[in-house]
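Hey,
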Amino acid sequence: MAICKEIISDFNDGKTFYRYYETSLKKKTHRNIRVLKVPTIISLTEEHRLASTPLLVCFSGCHTRADVTFMIDSSDSVGQINFNRQLDFLKDVTNKLNVGQDQVHVSALTFSSGVHNKFYLNDYARKSDVLHALSGIQYFPGNTDTADAIKFMSQQSFSPAHGARGDVPHIAVLLTDGPSTTKAITKLQAQTAKDNSAVIYTVGVGSGVDVDELTSVSSNPDLRYSMFADNYDTLNSLSDMLATKICNGELVLFLIKTKLLKKAFVLSYPSLLPLSLYT
């Protein structure tokens, strides 16, 4: 069973509306959808814009086991309102993960002038508890000590003493809106963490991010492990993609066939390969 979100946009005034529901893609319940090859997301969204048709986003679910650590930017440049938007984004991602005793474990830390651990991997076993803990994280502004955050993640968050498991992937998510205080040390700490088997996703927000730094910090290839949002208002648009990549699942994008659009397209992540044909 897949969880789907239908996105209905009015391109005249930019308003977007969402409708959630479940559907069984494998049983071909969408008999009016024909899936064709689409080379890039750009062509998909362009067709969507031109046709002004609903876009259906389906997330196939999370079936992986992993230890996940969120590194949250709490620097001066973020501000309280945008810090809360970061938390909303991470709660949306967490809600799509299969958090449980023998499934996905989550930890979180913030960084500004130093690192503030919020909870470790072995603190919470239930998704509801993780979501509640994320909601309670406080904003402490300061510098952007990204290097210290990555070092803490590698040495403390992913240590066996704090619940890290040896038989699951160690996945870190770095969320930031600007360059680090010490760029060279940040890259060095990231490489050390990756040498110790950490998988690092970077999520950059806004025009102030250092793209070179974030792509250096992230695991390879950059296309998979580095993501960017234009601003905090659009950050949540990346939650489906990030959750899908963490889960190694599929994010399915449909254009619903209408009288204006005789064709519908689908694109899946992370493989970027088209799914089977629906008739």
